[in-house]
Amino acid sequence: MDDLIPATTTQDDVDEDIPVIRANQYILIKMPSGNQKVVTLRPDSLVSLGKFGSFHANDLIGQVFGHSYEIYGRNQIRVTSNWALEEVEETDANNREIFDDSSTQKLSFLDIEKLKEEGMKGELEGKDIIQKMVDSHASFDKKTEFSKAKYIQRKQKKFMKVFTPLRPTMLSVAQYFFVKNPDKVRNMRIDTLSQILSFGNVHANSKLLVVDDTQGLVISAVAERMGGFGTILGIHDGDNHNYDILRYMNFSKHVLDSVTTLPWTKVAKDAAQEPFDYKTEEQLGNMKELDRNGYYRRKRGYEKLQAAKQSLWDGNFDGLIVASQYTAVSILETLLPYLGGSRPIVIYSIHKEALLDACVWMRKSVDCLNPQITESWLRQYQVLPGRTHPEMTTTGGAGYVLTAMRVIDFPTQAAVGMGSRRNKEVDSEDGRSVSSLGTRGTRRGGDRGRRGGWDSGGRGRGGRGVRNAKNRSEQASASALMTKGDDGEPSKRVKLDD
């Protein structure tokens, strides 16, 4: 088993005031159409953006994230302003006199196609094409300022060769995969992912147990939040993990070393395992270099596997986060014993019905407290000068989250008495305080009966208090019977059948 993900950097850019673009790293390119593309900046290579042109990777390496660049000439780039942030003057005009049909544009279809070809060859810049279309528009001057801005924006998306490099963060990467391939991340939206991190109490120096079938989206979010401080144990299918998204985050070796993986087939303590065939120094000296390197690689993988198994069996994890294709109940039955007390349990599923069985199972279990299912809803807003408003369309759903708290049940410890502070602790040997508590409750019930009078049947109205006090006395006496056995070990919990 080799390293989890090859580290693309030796230093985390989280410590930098202004992170810069580095060679051999993944970055997100936001194109004029609004779509995003993941590219790798390899030195001396040419990065293609399709119909928007190409540029040399060396021109972008060393620059800062967030600036907008325009492609011009022969695959050259230059910094340009972001036209989407330009302010629009407010006006009282309206569009009642505008008739938007083919007659308003004097340029024919062939003329526009010719302009496109000149733009693709680099003979004509995008802003010049847009200006010609604006000048030939018969009703452009009659439009409102907002309509003019929208018209120019549509044309810029078609003809301007402007792109913006974005730093791969959990926000940008999660949004990219949710739009491009939501099935890959099990339809997990960024707001749902943030709730999972919040419910899971993810922070530095934690020891977390994660079952991630979202191609590494949850693992990446947890690793980014912890920053390499702590331990993350990922449970996965097959012999090798499939945390593909983890490599897009450009984590350093310090962060990647905090992530360990373990297959489901190795979780059980009684699982069959093949012992490793260790070689002596003499045997290694007689091996070829290629075979010797393979031996060292297998040895590292075996030692990492043993360390991951021991980390799981040691237990006392600070949280359990699940986003899996398997049933939640089967995962809980297997991994819940390794979770520490008063630790959160977070389970995600795209379908609510998949979590209902787990919620019922938690309510019946003495190991889980306060299970509840929540659904998140998100509305995005366009925030531009003079044009801030909620978007008209949004996603219908982003899955459901089941949360609970892990509690430790100790049968030998009895919690008795909600009475006054003068009540003594329960003596597990003879139960004297329990008997006095029950007697006091009986006496209070009898006093209420005498004060309340007698009914026609000759019974006091305080008789109900007497019966309740008697029941409490019997339960407390039964709790007092939980003494040590002959072997010195605590006896099991007493069950009241009557």
Automatic annotation (TrEMBL):
Composition bias, Basic residues: 461-470
Metal-binding is among the record's keywords: no
Segments of skewed composition (Basic and acidic residues): 422-432, 444-453, 484-498
Keywords, sorted A to Z: Nucleus, tRNA processing
Start and end residues of each stretch annotated as Disordered: 417-498
Subcellular location: Nucleus
Principal localisation: nucleus
Domain of life: Eukaryota
GO cellular component terms attached to this protein's record: nucleus; tRNA (m1A) methyltransferase complex
Gene Ontology BP annotations: tRNA methylation
InterPro entries assigned: TRM6 (IPR017423)
Family assignment from sequence similarity: Belongs to the TRM6/GCD10 family.
Protein name as annotated: tRNA (adenine(58)-N(1))-methyltransferase non-catalytic subunit TRM6
Source organism of the structure: Jimgerdemannia flammicorona
